[in-house]
Design brief:
single chain, 493 residues, alpha+beta, Cytochrome p450, 3-stranded antiparallel β-sheet, 16 helices, 45% helix
Length: 493
């Protein structure tokens, strides 16, 4: 039986589907291979078995789904038949739903469901209106420019660490209106280091009980979360005492009011939403920019095209939000980097009713994985899929705007989709889609493009010879051991 968060009173039987292809043999060995290298394993399974693959039948029924139409049904058209998270079977045989990131983020937009999610999404949506994001544009470019000014010609840098600190400063300024100091950096860095690797293990039986034991790793995780809470609740208290009259997102979270009910967020809700925006926002954009510079470093021709556009459009001045419509290649570079190295490489849903998925009848209680890493490399939609080619996004129709309407709140957000008459909408979905599409997608795209422009107009970054860059698929897709690169200052042309 499964108890759904979306429908708390509903209990559903979980039984394996019939006829779904998948690997046979030793199940434990298959699970070990999957956990050891899920990126390669998922690609191999998709190529071997097709768009719907049975991953496990016990202790839960789990499937890898790579069909864009099925993904569209889960995220948009039939989204009410799905709920976020993965199902886990307990010792009593019952299934419960687990949100891996709730360990750190509580019940923010990424992890909440049902009416809680719909209400909070409605409250927060105005905070990400395009006009408000335009006001952040100068902050994006200024902080990126300040980051690059600290570099020295010929200096070896860990670009992932540099981008992480830069995006953390951007979010600290726009979200909390506080300067980035060493204490804040260390608190956030420690919380991510201790908790992100463990987040994926929340789906394993016994994790919750083990987390309460006085084990060294569990104690470090708890201590890092406590430090993060003290920091955020302290900022909330100070901002409430000051009247919460600023334009930063924390003040807006404290003062926002539901137009229908008049309700405001309490401190715990503000904490969860603020941490979601702080940690998820800075982590994903840092990853996107890190992989962008990695790809540019290995593709000098694309880098030259990017810098030629920056020279033409900017003429030596810093970028502004008004430049974005003319920075077409700059945005294409970012989109292509997110295709090859999506900051979130996979997402999970569970079925709350029996459903036809990619031509297979899957039972309620099934866990479905949709992997951007896999779908973004499908040669049916992306010829020569492993090649970094920003020009994919420049031909007519390649970067059309796909509007995803939040049917529960009557609001909408837009993002470049790469959709063409030959390529379905969900062949590319770095920000998800539908009512649960990332609320900060427009923020992230503007931040990423302006930061890329501010840095690339001054610097070329080259890979360090002999260093093997390996993607590390935790909840997000990071470089496993950092991303060392050498900075070379551009000479005036």
């Amino acid at each position: 039986m499964i108890v759904s968060e979306e429908h708390p009173g509903l209990r559903m039987a979980s039984r394996p589907a019939v006829g779904v292809p998948g690997p046979g043999g030793n199940r434990l060995a298959a699970l070990r291979r999957m956990r050891a290298d899920p990126l390669t394993r998922f690609l191999d399974l998709r190529r071997a078995y097709g768009p719907v693959v049975r991953l496990t039948a016990w202790p839960v029924s789990a499937y890898l789904v790579s069909d864009p139409e099925a993904i569209a049904d889960a995220l948009v058209g039939g989204h009410r038949a799905y709920a976020k998270g993965a199902a886990r079977r307990g010792r009593d045989g019952r299934l419960t739903v687990v949100q891996p990131l709730s360990l750190l983020l509580g019940q923010g937009l990424l992890t909440s469901s049902g009416q809680t999610h719909r209400t909070n999404r409605r409250l927060l949506q105005p905070l990400f209106h395009r006009r408000r994001i335009a006001g952040y544009g100068a902050t994006f470019a200024t902080i990126a420019d300040s980051t690059a000014r600290r570099w020295r010609d010929g200096q070896r840098l860990d670009i992932h660490a540099e981008m992480s600190e830069m995006t953390l400063e951007i979010v600290a300024r726009t979200l909390f209106d506080v300067p980035l100091d060493d204490a804040l950096i260390e608190v956030v860095r420690t919380a991510l280091r201790e908790n992100m690797p463990a987040a994926g293990r929340r789906v394993l039986p016994g994790f919750a009980a083990a987390e309460r034991l006085p084990l060294p790793a569990a104690r470090r995780r708890r201590a890092s979360r406590d430090a993060l809470d003290r920091m955020v609740y302290g900022l909330i208290a100070r901002r409430r005492a000051a009247g919460a009259t600023g334009d930063d997102l924390l003040s807006l979270l404290l003062s926002t009011q539901d137009a229908e009910t008049g309700a405001r967020l309490d401190d715990a809700q503000v904490r969860d939403e603020a941490l979601t925006l702080l940690l998820a926002g800075h982590e994903t954009t840092a990853n996107a920019l890190s992989w962008t510079f990695h790809l540019l470093g290995a593709n000098p021709q694309a880098e030259r095209a990017l810098q030629a556009e920056l020279d033409t459009v900017l003429g030596g001045r810093p970028p502004t939000i008004d430049d974005l419509p003319r920075l077409e290649y700059t945005q294409a570079v970012l989109q292509e980097a997110m295709r090859l190295y999506p900051p979130v490489w996979a997402m999970g849903r569970h079925l709350i009713e029996d459903r036809e998925v990619g031509g297979h009848r899957l039972p309620a209680g099934s866990t479905l994985l949709f992997s951007q890493w896999v779908v973004h490399r499908d040669e049916r939609w992306w010829p020569d899929p492993d090649r970094f080619d920003p020009s994919r996004w420049l031909h007519p129709g390649a970067a059309t705007t796909g509007t995803s309407t939040d049917t529960d709140t009557d609001t909408s957000t837009s993002t470049s989709t790469g959709a063409t008459p030959q390529r379905p909408r969900f062949a590319y979905f770095p920000f998800g889609g539908g009512p649960r599409q990332c609320i900060g997608n427009t923020f992230a795209l503007a931040e990423g493009a302006l930061a890329l422009a501010a840095i690339a107009r001054h610097w070329s970054l080259r890979p360090v010879p002999g260093f093997d860059v390996v993607p590390h698929p935790l909840v997000t897709l990071r470089p496993r051991d950092g991303l060392p690169m050498t900075a070379h200052r551009r000479r005036p042309s």
